[in-house]
Amino acid sequence: MPDETKSPPPPPPENEKPTADKPATPGGVKSTPSGSVQSETTTTPSKPSPSSETSTPPKAAAPATPAKPAAPAAAGHPAPPKPAGPVPTPWDSPLVAKYKREYGTGINPLTHLGQNYFEVDRSLIPEILQLLRDDEKFDYCVDLTAVHYPKREKQFDVVWVLYSFQRNERIRVKTQIADGETVPSSVPLWATCNWLEREVYDMFGIKFDGHPDLKRILLPDGWKGFPLRKDYGILQQDNEWVQINLGIESGQ
Amino acid sequence: MTDPRSLSPLDLETPDKTFLDANELVINMGPQHPATHGVLRVILRLDGEKVLGLECVIGYLHRGVEKIAENRTYTMFNPYVDRMDYVAAVSNGLGYCEAVEKLLSVEAPPRAQYIRVILTELNRIASHQLWLGTHALDIGAITPLFYTFRDREEILKIFEKYCGARLTTHAFRIGGLQYEAYDGFESDVRNFVSFVKPKIDEYEELLTTNRIWLERTKGVGVISGKDAIALGVTGPVLRASGVKWDIRKAQPYANYKNFDFEIPTGENGDTYDRYIVRMMEMRQSLRIIEQAVAGIPEGPIMAKVPKVMKPPVGEVYHSIEAPKGELGYFIVSDGSTQPYRVRVRPPSFVNLQALDVMCRDQLVADVIAVIGTLDIVLGEVDR
Amino acid sequence: MHALVQYIESYLSSDKTPGAAGNFFWATVYVLLVFVGLSIAVIAMNWLERKILAHMQVRLGPMRVGPHGLLQPIADALKLLLKEDIIPDGADKVVFWIAPFIVVLAAFTVFVVVPFGPTHAITDMNIGILFMLGVSSLSVLGIVTAGWASNSHYPLIGALRSSAQMVSYEVAMGLAVVSAILMTSLNESKTGTLSMIGIVQAQFDQHEWFLFKFFPLGIIAFGIFAIAMVAETNRAPFDLPEAESELTAGFHTEYSGFRWSLFFLAEYSAMIAVSSIAVTLWIGGWLRPFPNLLQGSTWDLAFSSVPGITFLLLGAICFYNTARMPKHPLFKIQTLGLAGFGAVLALIGLMMFLPPVRERVGDIFWFSAKVAGFMYLYIWYRGTFPRYRFDQLMKVGWKVLLPTGLALLILTAVVGMRAELLAQVKQVFQR
Predict the structure, then answer these.
(1) What angle do CA B5, B10, B13 make, to 5 degrees?
(2) Which site among B5, B238, B277 would you substitute to test the A interface, given the most A Cβ atoms closer than 10 Å to its Cβ?
(3) pLDDT band for position B16 (50/70/90)?
(4) Which end of chain B is least crowded, N or C, by CB within 10 Å?
């Protein structure tokens, strides 16, 4: 399998901020081709990647490599970009090339302000996240959040911020979902997603399939509405809850 | 050690019978409890004194900072970030300002960068001092608290002289600084460095080799590096578990790449290692401050930023190494004067999640020690 | 009437304690004196603890109520008395009401046998030390009932911790005490004593504090007792039952106002009580330093003037601080108050030079001074040590102190009987 030697990309990617290759950085260690046991610092229990990678190549063969769509239909920002300021440009790297080959139009790698992200189709999310964690060693889920675009048909962007200690690289994975649609939970991949998903549920009302204990986290249990949605009026608090539980007229 | 991913949520409804028909005890620690550092509520399920599991109930201090951000301009939101981790307000400000600067594609001038680094590192020392005092107090040593507060006062005095505020400083502006360093700033900082060096030894004298302190902290609240990464734990807690990772080195922001310092790490990932790591971090911060004070360049302190900030459409994630761990800002701009969405990635919130894993099968007294060692600030957990 | 006066006067020539002499009038007077003295000691201790701890922690402590906060304990007491007395709804009211009294009773009853001097004790029991240990451990009962009656989790855990702790440390404490009692039997008649006065007398007769007896056995026994007594009184670093950061306040979490102050009173008088045991058993009780070596009227005079000198010194400190007071008119009353306090102390000091007072007060002074040393240790521990964890505390109690105590007891017995043992061995060989 030719992919196998090539897939873990050579050292740190070219476009992540000022790439620090100071000796102290854990991930900055020049990676060996297989990228498995090289860190004196990270305690990643990573099983050697070849074993897990063998499952992917069959798929890779299937879709023909498409031309990169310059402006994907699912672009994150409905408003036409203003002339001023940088616009997201396609992101190119060995990692991207590989995934592009596998998933074709399902993913759309972009880079903006020196930061890389994937726009991924909702259906591919579990697979992509699994691959990113296991094969590409994005073993640290930095953050999980959402953004609400009420005017869009698919109202929500769900954003994972991932970091790899070995590659010293940070990427984001974005997907669009409609109101009421669920997202598969990432708790089996990163335990940290437990509270983060609860917070997203609390603030946006996005449900995560397979989350062990999906309930409100910052707001009280009986609260109505999801405050970080754009249509949640900040002046119309849940007065009912306040009246029942705190015994005051309004929280204002 | 349980795999953090397999931890089941705590069943509080059906306490099991344990021994001689005794019930398991469910007790409520907080939200008003002297050792929960604010309004954290921890529901403990106990078998005698042993912790079978616990659940954190948070949100008592929730102010909806992220929602507020959507209704303020970029400049107006700046003071709000200080109210999250109020013991390290300067770090919060640095993270936010740098994130917006990134969105605007501007960079603060070198002089501003140096002053920022000095203040941020001072703030890191202040935060660690506060942590040390309260942590020791939780474990029963009351005296270090007063020593650390006495010395933290000197830092707050510098802040006050610099920007007029002691705690929620609002020291930085997007694009640089508003205030030039006052006359004598440099000598004040230098004096502080030489003042506090022996004081750190003094704290260590009280605790580092104290038998009771060793017994109370060694092997308590152990978390392996692997679990720490899986749980997203960052900062000194991660480093004490042997993962040598510090954003200041890994992906240097501000001008940290100009400074020579080390990343202290621990080995066992227990409370004692976290204590040692933080103590060493304070010394490293002093090293950075010394270098920064020696090298402050002349020049402007403010980059060219428009009066009315309208960052181009786009989004940016920027994170810094706050005293408690990775503090990230995810800002989405729609091209207007107000951020479309500001997401704060709070280190305390994520670190607090590890409490359950670290406390299982330990004793009640250890829960207190572990809450202390995680160094959480409820303002940041709840935002 | 005459009979009554005679009854009262008849005691004055006696060389026994009023209890032992069977004189109820003087016994009552002594009880009142001890009670008042103890209350004053607790109040003083309260102020001193706050002040000393404060100075260890680079702060000033109470400074506002009275000069240098001298009136602070009184203000505190007033506050506590005026506070609303809350009995939780779910509490067992009767038991909740009784509990603090059990604790206080136990803590105060102990002082019946504490010898402040050869005749300065309420009574002298031939089982004095047993009585003290027994009664002082009754306070566990009060603590358990307090914790249980509160019907709340924190007090319950605190009470359980407390009872487990006190019961286990009592064992080690008892062993250390027994080894000291063994030492009292080293006299002509080979008879030991359990009487508190007898124990001090034995130290006088043997020309040695039991602390230094059979070096290092005496010191080890004292060490065990010194550790156990801190645990016994639930003080730092063994203050787990009321570990503030874990159990908010332990067994007295639900108590407020006067009832709470009873617990406070009991805690401090228990501290004084166990310190008195330690002083009596190992540090020579009321004996002045070197009572055998430095005899003679000159030395007697020198040592008996120490109390007066001490009080004069305290007065001098007050005057010195009066001079350092700010000269602002706002501080006028404070300055006057401090000067007045100094004057009172100096007056007491001068009175102590009067021969009749001087002769009687020496014993009490030395005893109190030694106890005060222990009190300072208590404060010092509190300022220095973190708190033990419960399992560690039990480990220290059962795995360290108890075996050491047992070994010590056997060793003391063997060393004490070495002459007889050797004789026995010789006999065996001669036969």
Answers:
(1) 155
(2) B5
(3) low
(4) N
Amino acid residing at A71: A
State whether residue A80 sits within 8 Å of chain B by CB.
no
Verify whether the Cβ–Cβ distance C387 to B216 is below 8 Å.
yes
The DSSP code for B317 is: E
From chain B, the residues in CB contact with C246 under 8 A are: 35, 364-365, 368
Alpha-carbon gap, residue C323 to C342, rounded angstroms: 12
Whether B207 sits inside 8 A of C386 (CB atoms) is yes
In a domain, C203, yes or no: yes
**Any domain includes C266:** yes
The mean pLDDT value for B90-97 works out to: 90
Q: Which of residues 150-169 of A touch B (CB under 8 A)?
A: 159, 161, 165, 168
Structural domain contains residue C55: no
Is the CB of B373 inside 8 Å of chain A's CB atoms?
no
Residue B102 with chain A: CB contacts under 8 Å: 113
Predicted confidence (pLDDT) per residue in C268-309, tens digit: 888 898 899 899 888 888 888 887 777 778 888 888 888 889
Token pair 């600084």: residue: B177
- The total number of structural domains in chain C stands at 1
pTM of the model: 0.81
Range of the domain at C254: 87-305+353-427
Contact by Cβ (8 Å): B163, B170: yes
- Residue C261 resides in a domain: yes
* Touching status, chains C and A (3+ beta-carbon pairs under 8 Å): no
Q: What ipTM was reported for this prediction?
A: 0.84
Which chain B positions have a beta carbon within 8 Å of A141's beta carbon? 232
Distance in angstroms (rounded) separating the CA atoms of residues B246 and B253? 11
Per residue in A217-231, pLDDT tens?
A: 888 887 778 888 888
Hey, what's the torsion of the CAs at C278, C281, C283, C285, to 10 degrees? 100
